Every structure is written in structure tokens, then in C-alpha cells.
Amino acid sequence: MWNFPGRAILYDLDGSTTGKGPNSWATPYFKHNEQDACSIDEPTNSLMCDNTVEVRKIYFKGMTPNSRFKLQPMRILRFDDELLLTLNREEYIDEKDNYTSYPWLKSGWTVPFVTGHKYKISWGNNGLDWD
Fold first, then answer.
1. Which residues of the chain have pLDDT under 50?
2. Domain span at residue 116?
3. Cα 26 from Cα 9, distance rounded (Å)
4. Is 108 contained in some domain?
5. How many domains in the chain?
6. What are the pLDDT digits (tens) for 53-84?
7. With 0-12 CB in 10 A as exposed, 13-18 as middle and 19+ as buried, what is 63?
């Protein structure tokens, strides 16, 4: 199991941890990272990804104006073009179960992402965003 806040990323050189072969990845499970190259290990609440992708963390901090973003959860939605072509875009965006809600931690948000994909990011329960 992963400790809170779940931002660890393990690079598995031989595949013995992930079962996905050499140079694979293990990270805490978050909804936005559900990708074809990855599978969910429910007993450990992990995402196991093969070597066709990478998993990297992104640190979001220094938002301006800080008072609008401070203490707000980050909301992350998978937003790949090919996914959106198969769904009703407005219903998909409006459905709260499609999002990862990641809490604010002291100075910002540090979140693991599966690379090579698009994500829609907003803050708070009302989708605080910027253009």
C-alpha cells in the first residue's frame, strides 16, 4: 500500500514488481492515469504500467492569485483526443466520477502522470480554471 499523499513512482528494472516486464512502472492508482499500457492492482491500490509509457511527477505551485487556489483540490481528467471522440464530451466533462481529486498540500500539488497523454486540470469543486 502507498502512504498518503501517494506521489511515489517506482521504476522496475526487471519487471519483478509490476509483472509488466523490464523497465516498467508502479505508482499509486489515480483515475486520470487509467491508460491502455497500465493495469490496476486492486489489493495494493497501484497502477502498473509497461515500458511503452513513462510515469513522471509534476509539481504545481506558485499559483496567482494564491488566495483563489490555496486549499483547493486539484481535479484531473483524462483528455486524450481519441477518448473524447468515443464519448459525449459534455457529459464526460460533467461526470465527477471521471476525475481524480487531489488535495492541496501546504505549498501546492505534486501528482504522478502517465506521459504521452492529455489531461484537463482545474481546481475546487466548481472547476476553477484559467484561459
1. 131
2. 10-123
3. 6
4. yes
5. 1
6. 999 998 888 777 666 777 788 899 999 999 99
7. middle
